């Protein structure tokens, strides 16, 4: 981290997408390094700022920006759909452009203004092969050999989607961490529980890898919509009600598009003392 940031602190923006909350650090001017230790310290909701994910924005020669996502435990997340939408909203407003491209670990992702204050992002095609997900051995990802007959879907990160009679009745806090670290998932997994509430509507709750229960998960919403279509429960266009709001998913020929709201909550500066203690 640059010397002047050690002296003056590090600016950040707090945002959320359907209750999925983020600390956004703009490093497009350079000079910012986020370590796992700093991410963990900032993610502490009592002693830090608190977030589901931290997003680092950096310059990219082929895109509007490059995004790196950190979970609350300091690990990195290969994909984060709601955080991608939040950053897209920032840069769309900043530039006045109707659409842009962002780079994540998944590759180049297109995003656009969806009107009505909503932002849409193409999360790419789902990864449905066991090795891409990844799983620890060759298995039919449409029927994973786990209780509840879940579906495995990759969206740049792994997901284990369970279809249940009533998502509200699931003990996510108990089941989530057990499934997250099942040996079937060498890189751990996000865990979703969804129930069909209408022919084109799902209720979903989620346990996020490296974070825990969250009010929404963009990549998990996409994975759940894909799994529901593959199981014959819905078409390719669905509305997904999550704990923090509502997201719309459209699995098109060019990828899985997700649309939803974003919100800027507050700006602040991480103190030099905090940064020094977290190094």
Helix and strand pattern:
HEEHEEEHEEEEEHEEEHEEEEH
What is the H level of CATH, i.e. the homologous superfamily of the largest domain? Answer: Diaminopimelate Epimerase, Chain A, domain 1
Residue ranges: pLDDT <50 for 5 or more in a row? Answer: none
What is the CATH topology classification name of the largest domain? Diaminopimelate Epimerase, Chain A, domain 1
The main sheet comes to: 17 strands, mixed
Class from secondary-structure proportions: alpha+beta
What separation lies between the terminal Cα atoms? 10 Å
Number of domains: 2
Our count of helices gives 6
Strand content: 35-45%
Structural summary, described in words:
This protein has 279 residues and is of the alpha+beta class. The protein folds into 2 domains: 3-122 and 262-278, Roll (Diaminopimelate Epimerase, Chain A, domain 1), CATH 3.10.310; 151-253, Diaminopimelate Epimerase, Chain A, domain 1, CATH 3.10.310.10. Helix content is 21%, strand content 39%. A hairpin with a 4-residue loop joins β4 and β5. The longest helix is centred in the first third of the chain and has 15 residues, at 81-95. The radius of gyration is 18 Å and the shape is globular. The relative contact order is 0.17. The model has no long low-confidence stretch (mean pLDDT 96).
């Amino acid at each position: 981290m640059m010397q002047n940031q050690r002296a003056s602190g590090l600016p950040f923006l707090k945002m959320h997408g359907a209750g999925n909350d983020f600390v956004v650090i703009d490093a497009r001017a350079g000079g910012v390094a986020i370590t796992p230790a700093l991410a963990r310290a900032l993610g502490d909701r009592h002693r830090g700022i608190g977030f589901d994910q931290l997003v680092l924005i950096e310059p990219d020669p082929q895109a509007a920006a490059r995004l790196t996502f950190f979970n609350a435990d300091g690990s990195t997340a290969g994909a984060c759909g709601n955080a991608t939408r939040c950053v897209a909203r920032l840069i769309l407003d900043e530039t006045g452009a109707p659409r842009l491209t962002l780079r994540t670990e998944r590759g180049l992702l297109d995003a656009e203004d969806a009107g009505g204050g909503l932002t849409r992002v193409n999360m790419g095609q789902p990864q449905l092969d066991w090795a891409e997900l990844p799983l620890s051995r060759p298995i039919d990802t449409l029927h994973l050999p786990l209780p509840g007959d879940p579906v495995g879907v990759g969206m740049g990160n792994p997901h284990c989607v369970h279809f249940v009679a009533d998502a509200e009745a699931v003990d996510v806090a108990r089941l989530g961490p057990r499934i997250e670290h099942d040996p079937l998932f060498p890189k751990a997994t996000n865990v979703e529980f969804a129930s069909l509430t209408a022919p084109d509507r799902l209720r979903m709750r989620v346990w996020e890898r490296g974070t825990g229960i969250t009010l929404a998960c963009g990549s998990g919403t996409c994975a759940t919509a894909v799994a529901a279509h593959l199981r014959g429960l819905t078409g390719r266009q669905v509305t997904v009600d999550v704990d923090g709001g509502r997201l719309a998913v459209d699995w098109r020929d060019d990828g899985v598009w997700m649309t939803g709201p974003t919100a800027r909550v507050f700006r602040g500066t991480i103190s030099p003392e905090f940064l020094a203690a977290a190094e």
